[in-house]
Each structure stands twice: as structure tokens, then as C-alpha cells.
Design brief:
- The complex is a heterodimer of chains A (about 110) and B (about 110).
- With about 110 residues, chain A is an all-beta fold.
- Helices cover about 0% and strands about 55% of the residues of chain A.
- Chain A contains no helices and eleven strands.
- In chain A, strands 2, 4, 5, 6, 9, 10 and 11 form a seven-stranded mixed beta sheet that branches.
- The radius of gyration of chain A is 13 Å and the shape is globular.
- Chain B is mostly beta strands and about 110 residues long.
- Chain B has no helices and eleven strands.
- In chain B, strands 2, 4, 5, 9, 10 and 11 form a six-stranded mixed beta sheet that branches. A five-stranded antiparallel beta sheet of chain B has the order 1-3-8-7-6, with no helix packed on it.
- Chain B is globular.
- Chain B starts with a strand and ends with a strand.
- The model of chain B has no long low-confidence stretch (mean pLDDT about 95).
- The chains are: A mainly beta (about 110), B mainly beta (about 110).
- At the A-B interface, β5 and β10 of A face β5 and β9 of B.
């Protein structure tokens, strides 16, 4: 199984809402990643978890809050987002040490 | 610091060959990836080079020269489905992340 799953596929939320994005992998990977991607731009790293511990936070605003409940699951909690946060949010996993990453299909987020 | 450069856009003809270049300046370099991303979809892994030389995988090949800070992705017998963005990404020693270049959008004409 080389699949990373993400839910939901699409999400529309208002600026006062609280929502969560979910990501799951069953490849036994020890590292999991959240990326944000705007149209015609490369993925922009947000967070890295290694062995369920947050190892990298790329100075992401606190309105984005990651959580890694166990080695297979990664969540991204969203609160008080801005319209400019509208983007494709990608989750990825790897064996760790920045080896080959497997990406999920992404969540297309629109903030109104 | 680090810098990764690749052309923004390229156009090629179905059935032809195209080479997408990537140059990088990275301290602690420990490997280079190529990913393919179709519009609206997730990136998918194409290749990984850590030693100098050419790696071939079917219609796709990737080359690395560490001394020159240079890599290329070679696509042969182009098909319409190869229209996508191609992302070069660099890995550094001791890092848990990779750094993506801005990507090259490849357009295939019939």
C-alpha cells in the first residue's frame, strides 16, 4: 500500500470557522509533512513530524495548528483563516531523513 | 543559503525529446529529486540522484553532476500526458525536508 489519503477533498470555510484536515498513511513511514500550494507555484513546506514529534515549523501562523495523534495520522487544525490562506493543502510521508515523499491528493481549501 | 533554478516553461512536440535543466547552489547537498505534477493533482516521484551520472527509468532519465551543481530530466518519446509541471528538489545532510525549485511547466503540442 503506497497510498496517502486526505480528507476532505474540498473545503469551504468562513473566516470565523474551525475545521480540520486529515491525512493517513499505512506505509510505516516515520516522517509526515504538510505543504501549502498556490496555483502555478511549488509546494511550500509548513510542518514536518518525525516519529510523531514536530521537528520543523516553517514559521507558520498560529491559525494553523498541526497534530500527529499516532504514526499513521496527521491533522491540520484551522481557525480564523484569511482569504489568502485559500490553497491546495498537501500531506506527504516518507521513510524520513527527507527521502522520497509520497503525496496525498490534497485538500482544496477556500476561505470566504 | 540555497538557490535552485529551472526554466519556468518549455514547449515540445509529441514524439520528441525534451531536457529540463535544474541548477542548484546548496550547502550540505545530499541528493536531488524530480517530481511530476499534473494540474490540480499531487506531485509524484520520478527520480532520485545522489551520485554523479545518469539514472534511466523507461522514457525518463535523470542526470546529476555534483561538481557543477547541475541536473537534468530527459523525457523521450513525448506523449500528451507528459504535459505537467516538473519540480526539481534538493536534499541536504541532516535535514528532514527537501527544498523545491519553482518548477517547469511543460507543454506538449500534437
Amino acid at each position: 500500500d503506497t497510498e496517502v489519503t486526505q480528507t476532505p477533498k474540498h473545503l469551504v470555510m468562513g473566516m470565523t470557522n474551525k475545521k480540520s484536515l486529515k491525512c493517513e498513511q499505512h506505509m510505516g513511514h516515520r516522517a509526515m509533512y504538510w505543504y501549502k500550494q498556490k496555483a502555478k507555484k511549488p509546494p511550500e513546506l509548513m510542518f514536518v513530524y518525525s516519529y510523531e514529534k514536530l521537528s520543523i515549523n516553517e514559521s507558520v501562523p498560529s491559525r494553523f495548528s498541526p497534530e500527529c495523534p499516532n504514526s499513521s495520522l496527521l491533522n491540520l487544525h484551522l481557525h480564523a483563516l484569511q482569504p489568502e490562506d485559500s490553497a491546495l493543502y498537501l500531506c506527504a510521508s516518507s521513510q524520513g531523513g527527507a527521502l522520497e515523499q509520497y503525496f496525498g491528493p490534497g485538500t482544496r481549501l477556500t476561505v470566504t | 543559503g540555497q538557490n535552485i533554478d529551472q526554466p519556468t516553461e518549455m514547449t515540445a512536440t509529441e514524439g520528441a525529446i525534451v531536457q529540463i535543466n535544474c541548477t542548484y547552489q546548496t550547502s550540505g547537498f545530499n541528493g536531488l529529486f524530480w517530481y511530476q505534477q499534473h494540474a490540480g493533482e499531487a506531485p509524484t516521484f520520478l527520480s532520485y540522484n545522489v551520485l554523479d551520472g545518469l539514472e534511466e527509468k523507461g522514457r525518463f532519465s535523470s542526470f546529476l553532476s555534483r561538481s557543477k551543481g547541475y541536473s537534468y530530466l530527459l523525457l523521450k518519446e513525448l506523449q500528451m500526458k507528459d504535459s505537467a509541471s516538473y519540480l526539481c528538489a534538493v536534499r541536504r545532510w541532516g535535514d528532514d525536508k527537501i527544498i523545491f525549485g519553482k518548477g517547469t511547466r511543460l507543454h506538449i503540442l500534437p
